[in-house]
Write a structure and sequence with these properties.
This is Epimerase family protein SDR39U1-like isoform X1. This protein is of the alpha/beta class. It contains twelve helices and eleven strands. It has one domain: NAD(P)-binding Rossmann-like Domain (Rossmann fold, 3-Layer(aba) Sandwich). Helix content is about 40%, strand content about 15%. It binds NADP nicotinamide-adenine-dinucleotide phosphate.
């Protein structure tokens, strides 16, 4: 005998069931982002310190490290659980650890901050001075970490429509952003007599984007694209270095766990794209027209011309040493990255 349920109750039950299936599938698709390569060795219980680990990239890295059996301690401006502060590092040095990763820094593209000398100093010091603190603490540690990974940016390379830049290409001396990258990398250097700690620099997609649904540029741009107003920046022909956050965190893991990896690695995907390609893919995945370009003068006005160059100009950067070091990208192509980030759409739309 059928239970006596009203149409409303049946609809609510069906809606709930549908929502549960949706949430389950959605969570499963996101868990895939945390998957790592099971062939890699695990260093169970080792501690990794992450400077700036409470941010967008740091949070994803912390989850991946914990998933692989590491203990993670964040180095932060504020005290808290599983955290130490920069002042504590300065006063008492590093706690014993297997590795240190430095990815702290005030958000350069914070549109709520004007590009003043004061903000430029904050952007600079939050990367360079903090990195000096970490490098000094590592060099003074009685039991130094095995590996030290410090971030830098591909703004090191001069914007160009012509050149492809790899890790050995020149740069680092032509404007504020490139000088910042040089100073950041210099600050990370350990004294020449250091032989105990392996040093790796990851030049990440600082003039383009680290792609992930939970933060960074995609979160900032999502609503403008969702409303169909996400267009190209300037003429859209500038190169737009990018990397999926899953690949960036896996690259840090690769640097931590492979003893042969040293020196500079470009933390960008192998497919070089323009801002036009990026915009087209973003609009395609959201099924939006993307009619409205963002003219260069408006970006200059909003961000200040010097900073706006990070979006209006770009460089083609290739991860040559990264690939030679044996790293394989899960998302080498921009289409794959967008399909992954917005994979839930595939359950409802086929396109
Ligand atoms: N997201 C991107 O697309 C992208 C692209 C290329 C490069 N990067 C670089 O990668 C690093 C991490 O990026 P993210 O997106 O994870 O950044 P984020 O979300 O802004 O987090 C950065 C972290 O740095 C710390 N921080 C912020 N201001 C600071 C200051 N004035 N002094 C010291 N520490 C400060 C904060 O940690 P506490 O609050 O705990 O102190 C914050 O959680 C940054 O250096 C960024 O420039 C990011």
């Amino acid at each position: 005998m059928l239970p006596n349920v009203s149409f409303l109750e049946a609809s609510v039950a069906a809606g709930l069931g549908f929502a549960l299936v949706f949430v389950h599938l959605w969570r499963r698709s996101r868990q895939k982002l945390q998957e790592d390569d099971p062939s890699q060795p695990r260093t169970m219980g080792s501690r990794v310190l992450i400077g700036g680990g409470s941010g967008f990239i740091g949070t994803a890295l912390r989850k991946l490290l914990e998933h692989r059996g590491y203990q993670v301690t964040l180095i932060s401006r504020t005290p808290g659980k599983n955290k130490i502060t920069w002042d504590e590092v300065k006063k008492t040095g590093l706690p014993e650890c297997y590795a240190v990763v430095g990815m702290q820094g005030s958000n350069i593209l914070n549109i709520f901050r004007r590009w003043t000398d004061g903000f430029k100093k904050e952007v600079w010091d939050s990367r360079v001075e903090t990195t000096k603190t970490l490098a000094q603490a590592i060099s003074e540690a009685s039991n130094p970490p095995k590996v030290w990974v410090s971030f830098s940016g591909v703004g090191y390379y001069k914007p160009s429509y012509v050149y492809d830049y790899d890790e050995d290409s020149p740069g680092g001396d032509f404007d504020y952003i490139s000088q910042l990258a040089t100073a950041w990398e210099e600050a990370a250097k350990l004294p020449a007599e250091n032989t105990n700690t392996r040093e790796v620099i990851i030049r990440s997609a600082s003039t383009g984007v680290v792609l992930g649904r939970d933060g960074g540029a995609i979160k900032q741009m999502y609503f403008s694209f969702w409303f169909g107003s996400g267009g190209v920046i300037g003429d859209g022909m500038q190169f737009f270095p990018w990397i999926h956050i899953n690949d960036l965190t896996r690259l840090v893991m690769h640097a931590l766990e492979n003893e042969k990896v040293t020196g500079v690695l470009n933390g960008v995907a192998p497919e070089t794209i323009t801002n036009w390609d990026f915009t087209k893919e973003f609009n395609t995945v959201l099924l939006r027209p993307g009619f409205f370009p963002l003219p260069r003068p408006i970006v200059n006005f909003a961000l200040g011309e010097e900073r706006a160059k990070m979006l209006t100009e770009g460089q083609a950067v290739v991860p040559k040493r990264t690939l030679e070091s044996g790293f394989t990208f899960n998302f080498p192509k921009i289409k794959m990255a967008f399909d992954n980030m917005f994979s839930y759409r595939k359950w409802f739309f086929s396109y």
